[in-house]
Write a structure and sequence with these properties.
Shape: globular
Distance between the termini: 74 Å
CATH architecture of the largest domain: Roll
Number of domains: 3
CATH class of the largest domain: Alpha Beta
Strand content: 15-25%
CATH superfamily of the largest domain: CBS-domain
Strand order of the largest sheet: 8-9-12-11-10
Radius of gyration: 24 Å
């Protein structure tokens, strides 16, 4: 037992010694710190996942809400005058848990409707349902708010969604705690994400598709009659990333051989979801 304890202590001293060698000189800035951390990963002192978490946390401290928010045009909203039979199909189809409720104009956000507040309502209660009676207060934040501060506020207030406003007070979009956390840990997938083999490509309407960026090139080529080579990339996301020549922002589009590729979802690491529009 003593031998095992001595071995563990020696291993710890060896591990600490290896790290201390890399920090003989103090990093002068974040770039130098990142280089040192990557050196730790190269020497197998840090694993890839740990390095990714550290880099993600450092990036969040330099990012603002406007860089990750869901833009106004993509918000799923509910009108305060709508009856349950009008908005319930939208709630069920989107599978979201929170919905901004607005008055006559989109900029008039009255509060947030939680889907769970509808679950306990009976058919009779739904007939007399007044949406304003169950609204939760909406939180408003500027586009320029740093993500690390927003994350701290989310944690302290136990709030999960904020409405983003521009310099004139108009609604610019919304952001959720999941959006912020994904900048640190990468994708947070749930049962509604495109994560199974039979849901890589989802037809929306004629000539319009939603395609998971990890769709294998062979499957994509067969579906859309394209001829992308898999010599360099395995997925359509990798190909489109190369075509952009950089990590594109949400809603950016590029046309390749007559097919439009629009980015519907991307984080600070990779493209996640594409909208494909084929020629009519």
């Amino acid at each position: 037992m003593q031998e095992e304890s001595d071995t563990a202590s020696e291993t710890q001293r060896s591990w600490l010694k290896r790290i201390s060698r890399l920090f003989i000189t103090e990093p002068k800035d974040r770039n130098e710190l990142i280089l040192l951390l990557r050196e730790l990963e190269r020497k197998s002192i840090l694993d890839v996942e740990t390095l990714s978490l550290i880099e993600g946390a450092m990036q969040v401290s330099e990012m603002q809400v406007r860089e990750i928010m869901i833009p106004r045009s993509q918000m799923i909203i509910i009108n305060a005058d709508d009856q349950p039979e009008t908005f319930l199909p939208q709630v069920l189809e989107s599978a979201h848990s929170r919905f901004p409720v607005v008055g006559e104009k989109l900029d008039d956000v009255l509060g947030i409707l939680l889907a769970k507040d509808l679950l306990a309502l009976s058919q009779e209660a739904l007939k007399n349902f007044v949406i304003k009676d169950v609204l939760r207060p909406a939180t408003f934040i500027p586009e320029s708010k740093p993500l690390n501060i927003l994350l701290r506020e989310f944690r302290n207030t136990r709030n999960h969604m904020a409405i983003v406003v521009d310099e004139y007070g108009g609604v610019a979009g919304l952001v959720t705690i999941e959006d912020v956390l994904e900048q640190i840990v990468g994708d947070i997938e749930d049962e509604h994400d495109y994560d199974s083999d039979d849901s890589y490509i989802k037809p929306i309407k004629s000539h319009l598709f939603h395609v998971n960026a990890i769709t294998p090139l062979k499957e994509f080529n067969e579906q859309f009659n394209t001829a992308f080579s898999d010599d360099e990339f395995d997925t359509i996301g990798g190909v489109i990333l190369q075509k952009f020549g950089r990590l594109p922002r949400r809603l950016e589009a590029i046309t390749v051989d007559g097919i439009q590729y629009k980015v519907l979802h991307a984080d600070n690491r990779r493209i996640r979801l594409l909208q494909i529009k084929t020629m009519i």
